[in-house]
UniProtKB/TrEMBL annotation:
Its EC number is 3.2.2.27. The lineage of its organism: Bacteria, Pseudomonadati, Pseudomonadota, Alphaproteobacteria, Hyphomicrobiales. Keywords: 4Fe-4S, DNA damage, DNA repair, Hydrolase, Iron, Iron-sulfur, Metal-binding, Nucleotidyltransferase, Transferase. This is Type-4 uracil-DNA glycosylase. It catalyses: Hydrolyzes single-stranded DNA or mismatched double-stranded DNA and polynucleotides, releasing free uracil. It comes from Pseudorhizobium tarimense. GO terms for molecular function: DNA-directed DNA polymerase activity. It comes from the Bacteria.
Amino acid sequence: MIQAKDLEAGELAALLHFYADAGVDWLLEDQPIDRFEEFAVQQAAREQVRRVQAPSPAGQEERKRRTVPVPSAQLNPPPVAMPNDQAVAAAQLAAEGARSLAELKTALEAFGGCNLKNSARSTVFLSGNPASRIMVIGPMPNADDDRDGIPFSGRQGQLLDRMLAAIGLSREAVVLTNIIPWRPPGNRMPSPAETAICRPFIERQIALAEPGHLLLLGNFPARFFFGESGTIHSLRGEWRELTVSGRAVRAIATLHPQELLTAPANKALAWQDLLRFAEAAQAFGRHA
C-alpha cells in the first residue's frame, strides 16, 4: 500500500483534493488511538509539573510577607472631576488675554482646565487664511484630525475640499476650525460643561479673525450658535444675524461632510446651501 510519506507534494495535493471532492471530512490513522487515554496521561503529567513547581508552605508565607498591598485607589482610580465654574472663568481669562491668533493658540495649548485635553492627542487649532474673512466651523476633531493636528482631515476633509472647490474656494483661502479643540473619547458629543469651557476660545477665534460670514457644518455648530434645539435639516439654509463677542456676523448652516458621506442623497441640500453661501461671500468680498 502506498503511504502518504511516499508521495510527492503535487501527488499529495491532488490526493487531498480528491478526498475533499469525494466528501471526506476526516482522515483516520492506520491504527486506532484512544484519545481519552491520551488526554488523561497529558493531564496527569501537567498535574505532576504543578506539584513540583508549587512553593512549600514556608515559601508561600515568605512571599505573602514580601508582597506589598496595592491600595484600592490605585486599582480603581477615581474618575477625573468634571470641569466647574472656575474652569469656565479660567478659559475666559486665557482667551481674552490673547491679542492675536498666535497668542490664542499658545494659550489654548497651555490650558489644562478641560478634561477632553487629557485623552486627546492634539490640540486642533484653526488653519487657513484669516484675511479671507470667511470661516468654516465644525463641531469637534475626529480621529483623523486628532492624529494630524489640523481640522478637517481624512475623508471628511477631502469631501469638504471638494465642496469648497465647487464654489471657487479652498481650505487655504478660508479659515477652518472647530468649536471643540480636543477630540472627545470615542467621538462622543461633548458635555454641556465641556462645551461651556470651550466657548470662550471659539468666540475669541471669531473676534480675532473677524470673519464676515460663518459656514456652520452640522447639528452641533448650528445649535451652538443659533441657540435652538432643532436638527440640521430644520436649521440649515437660512442666513442668521449673530452677535459674537460684541460684533455682528452672518451665519448659515449646512450638513457636515460626515453626514453627506453617510447619506449621499443629502448632497443636493448641501449644494443649495453652498450656492447661497458663495453668493453672499462673493458680494461681501466685492464691498469689503
